[in-house]
Design goal:
Order of helices and strands: EHHHEHEHE
Largest sheet: 4 strands, antiparallel
Distance between the termini: 14 Å
Shape: globular
Helix content: 25-40%
Number of strands: 4
Oligomer: single chain
């Protein structure tokens, strides 16, 4: 699937039993420690700590649809500070589709880690102790729920996550999201 000329994006999907995905790819303690070390911890409604029990939040779904989008820049050597420009159109597309799936089928969407798309940067209401301005749109990421995305992309898709070196975007970026549901079959591209 082609996107603006500064990059190409290709979606990959895998459906598997939600209980299997949780058992194989969730390491709640390890990723909770990573989240606590992040500067966004407790500063965004999309980030932990959450005011609910995560095991209950994940329970009751038969199927996990995992979506991985491989974003390949059209040129090399792009500064990593430009990553958001490449991620944003794909994030918007993912999040719209995930929310559409929630409305259509019920279930639970898991968006991309990082900053929220719905409030201007640095203006989340959480640090002020006030409710989220957009609870109808904001969803936690799989990482925030304790899932290992390095293992997810490597084992389920055969695509390793790459990391920035020397302040440059790697060969490709990965956007990973998910949808837990009880529907017989969901086509991501539908």
């Amino acid at each position: 699937m082609n996107r603006p000329s500064d990059h190409t994006a290709r979606d990959f999907t895998v459906s598997l039993p939600a209980a299997d995905y949780i058992a194989r790819f969730r390491d709640a303690e390890r990723f909770a420690a990573c989240c606590r070390a992040c500067p966004n911890y407790g500063k965004s409604w999309a980030c932990p700590p959450f005011g609910f029990d995560m095991d209950d939040y994940l329970a009751g779904y038969r199927t996990a649809l995992i979506i991985a989008t491989k974003i390949t820049p059209s040129q090399t050597g792009i500064p990593f500070t430009e990553a958001g420009r490449l991620f944003r159109p794909e994030r918007v597309r993912h999040e719209r589709r995930l929310l559409e799936l929630e409305r259509r089928y019920g279930g639970r969407a898991f968006a991309y880690a990082g900053t929220c798309l719905y409030c201007p940067e640095g203006s989340c209401s959480r640090p002020a102790g006030t409710p989220c301005r957009h609870p109808e749109w904001v969803r936690p990421s799989l990482e925030a729920c304790g899932f290992d995305l390095c293992r997810t992309t490597g084992e389920l898709f055969g695509i390793p996550l790459l990391w920035s070196r020397d302040g440059r975007i790697p060969e490709y970026l990965m956007l990973v999201s998910g949808f837990f549901h009880n529907t017989e079959y969901i086509d991501w591209e539908e």
